């Protein structure tokens, strides 16, 4: 397939020439997905830690629900957010549809369950080790949560990476709520979808290669930090 | 080990008179039963623990020593019967004035110093300077000063248990429980732990200590509570216990016979 | 030990950076912009990239294009999620205006539909100019045909053409008649992949890059005429509609200047859209 060779040539050409349109959509992709990740971590880590150590009626059902929500189809999330933010929807007055904020909302809904479910597992394992000590010293709930989150921070980085990967790679939700508007809401994945629909498969694949490169760079940076930190300060 | 350093450091534990009612050092155990999986693991224990002596709990594996300790500390709820400290039921309220060193040390994934700081911050509103002074003194008392910045989990077994002990002492407990803290440790660590426990006792901390080591009982203990099959078979002074145990289970145990 | 200090710093930096990014994001499009609900066929052809800079330069108004199928574009506009509608399904557009969602419909331009197919031409329809005959031949030979199947303007047109040819292809759905349920480009990709015939607008086809050995097999029938209309979303239904800016865009695209700009747009030397403003619709 000469499309593959052509795709790599295009990818390197775009990156090499620092194509301004490319930079714009890459920066927007990262902005949207990182912001969604930050919000998701604030909500998801708190919820995950709470689910890990609290015992209450209905906890089992809630765990099943959160785990199931990890499989939310992006298109369904997009549709839901569209219906909420549409002018005809309950939050229409906020004028958020077809803005990066709408995309952040959709991705936040998409990845918060992932952060919550995976961090719940990590923190529950650590709490299994710490529980006796915490009870013996009568550590208040808030201090327990914070101590577990802090001591599990390197494992939780991996959880955050999983969330980021899902956010930056999804197309269904941001396409619907962002509208793929050039210079406003066009991100890597919607640009790939657009080029595919134009039949320009080589350019679409080239954008895919660049997206993969970005994902690799982010993962490598985080894993590098984690390995170093574990080696030096943590066992 | 620098005995005099330990004494100096532990002088920071506030001296309190033995038997101080505020410290809830008198335990009353009545008809205590703990059942799990259909088995009575603690099978009717009646016991009074007085504030003064260092109490050593002995007995074969499976006798229920660790369970009794957890029930005394209020970590477990009895199936029936009761544990009370100076009349107050064992639980969240009494536990705040107690500390425990577990058989397998539970250390936070942090530095040695941060492990001690965690308890110091939680238990008293000391200012930062005082806290650091106290932490350094505690570390010094068990020879861990040079390890302060190391990850706690990278310490040797003996060092980990020493850290767990001073972290327990950092909360200034009225009662200190120790669940076989020196099992399979190097002699130097055993000595440092025994010294630190003695010093704490001198400052008025009630000590309740599980061990299998009769030598340790002789070195450290004032009285022995002997358990077998979920029951307390005798509670006597150490010299009396060593020379002539009253129960046949204790006799068999001391003479190295299997108790079934 | 150094790493221990670096981690909190890195975390703090990441948080601070993230927050800055989040706060720097525009909460919404600025006030001098309008949202144009339009179709993939016009957007994919590159027409807007040619037209909109001219309009923005003249008026300072930014036009944000949401390119979806005609059916969805109309639905979005009914919800008030757009200021101007530019689509190609006249009956649906007239209903949109009649129901009070739009102010008034104007003809803007037309292009035409074509049927494309593989060079092997299994139904033997190459060169025919009568679309009804061609569709009948496809049905009879059971040659594979890909349909948009998405309620878009092109899909509505295709269904009308089948009806005119006296064929009901829905019975054959899943056999030789395959509904992709996706946009024009995706449907053409599918057609090329399956050696199937497809109905497409000429603009999308000329701009389309994944043609393989496909050729135009049927063109030129008047029934293939594809009229585009433009409508201002009714501010009486949705008070937030930027009527002034939206009307400025409509006035411009219907003006001599706008019409000329449409005529000027060429791809591979071919004119894609033919301006025909002036005939007022309903």
Key attributes of the depicted protein:
heterotrimer, A: 235 residues, mainly alpha, MetI-like fold, 10 helices, 0% strand, C: 282 residues, alpha/beta, D-Maltodextrin-Binding Protein, domain 2, ten-stranded mixed beta sheet, two-stranded antiparallel ribbon, 11 helices, 12 strands, 43% helix, globular, disordered N terminus
Question: How is the secondary structure organized here?
Answer:
The complex is a heterotrimer of chains A (235), B (260) and C (282).
Chain A: H1 2-16, H2 20-53, H3 59-69, H4 74-85, H5 100-136, H6 141-151, H7 153-169, H8 172-178, H9 188-197, H10 201-233
Helix pairs in contact in A: 1-10, 2-5, 2-7, 3-5, 4-5, 4-8, 5-6, 5-7, 5-8, 7-10, 9-10
Chain B: H1 3-10, E1 27-36, E2 39-49, E3 55-58, H2 65-72, E4 80-85, E5 88-89, H3 92-95, E6 98-101, H4 112-123, H5 128-141, H6 157-169, E7 175-179, H7 187-202, E8 206-210, H8 214-220, E9 223-228, E10 231-237, H9 238-243, H10 248-254
Parallel strand pairs in B: 3-8, 3-9, 6-7, 7-8
Antiparallel strand pairs in B: 1-2, 1-4, 4-5, 9-10
Helix pairs in contact in B: 1-5, 1-7, 4-5, 4-6, 6-7
Chain C: H1 2-24, E1 33-39, H2 40-45, H3 47-59, E2 62-68, H4 70-78, E3 84-87, H5 90-98, E4 102-117, H6 131-141, E5 145-147, H7 153-165, E6 177-179, H8 184-194, E7 197-201, H9 202-207, E8 215-218, E9 225-233, H10 243-254, H11 256-264, E10 266-267, E11 270-271, E12 274-275
Parallel strand pairs in C: 1-2, 1-3, 5-6, 5-7
Antiparallel strand pairs in C: 3-9, 4-7, 4-8, 4-9, 4-12, 10-11
Helix pairs in contact in C: 6-7
